[in-house]
Amino acid sequence: MASEVMKVKLVKELSNSEIDLLTVASGHTYTILNLSICETGGADETFDLYIRDDAGADDYEIYSDQALAANATFEHTTRIVLEAADVLSAQTAGTANVDVVISYLDQTL
């Protein structure tokens, strides 16, 4: 039986190492509706946001070296569709205080 469920994923403090924000479960499709990235430490930062297709080594950049001002919030409001085993990942250029909120639709067939 197919289902559609609205969900939220919260990630505290990105870093300068790759962080997997969201991994799509087998048999599911996730549609990201909104992604909010907030700098909370009072320092300018940059970040990368990308998809690792089928959890592989290849990164498909959505944002590369995107500027994020001190105490500012960046919002991505266009849809991103991820299929089973895809991974949404991110990292900052340096040690950072950056939080992420992802609103998405989890669909199964």
Can you offer a commentary on this structure?
With 109 residues, the chain is mainly beta. It has one domain (3-108): Jelly Rolls. 0% of the residues lie in helices and 63% in strands. The chain has no helices and 9 strands. The protein is globular. The termini are close together.
Write the topology of this structure:
Layout: E1 3-11, E2 19-23, E3 28-39, E4 45-52, E5 59-68, E6 73-76, E7 80-83, E8 87-92, E9 98-108
Antiparallel strand pairs: 1-9, 2-8, 3-6, 3-7, 3-9, 4-5, 4-8
State the helicity in percent bands: under 10%
Strand content: over 45%
The CATH architecture assignment turns out to be Sandwich
What is the residue-averaged pLDDT?
Answer: 94
Instruction: Identify low-pLDDT runs.
Output: none
**Biggest beta sheet summary:** 5 strands, antiparallel
**How many extended strands?**
9
Structure annotation, total helices:
0
Based on helices, strands and strand pairing, what is the structural class? mainly beta
Distance between the termini: 6 Å
Radius of gyration: 14 Å
Into how many domains do the coordinates divide?
1
Shape descriptor: globular
Oligomer type: single chain
Determine the CATH superfamily.
Satellite virus coat domain
CATH topology: Jelly Rolls
How do the helices and strands follow one another from N- to C-terminus? EEEEEEEEE
- CATH class category name: Mainly Beta
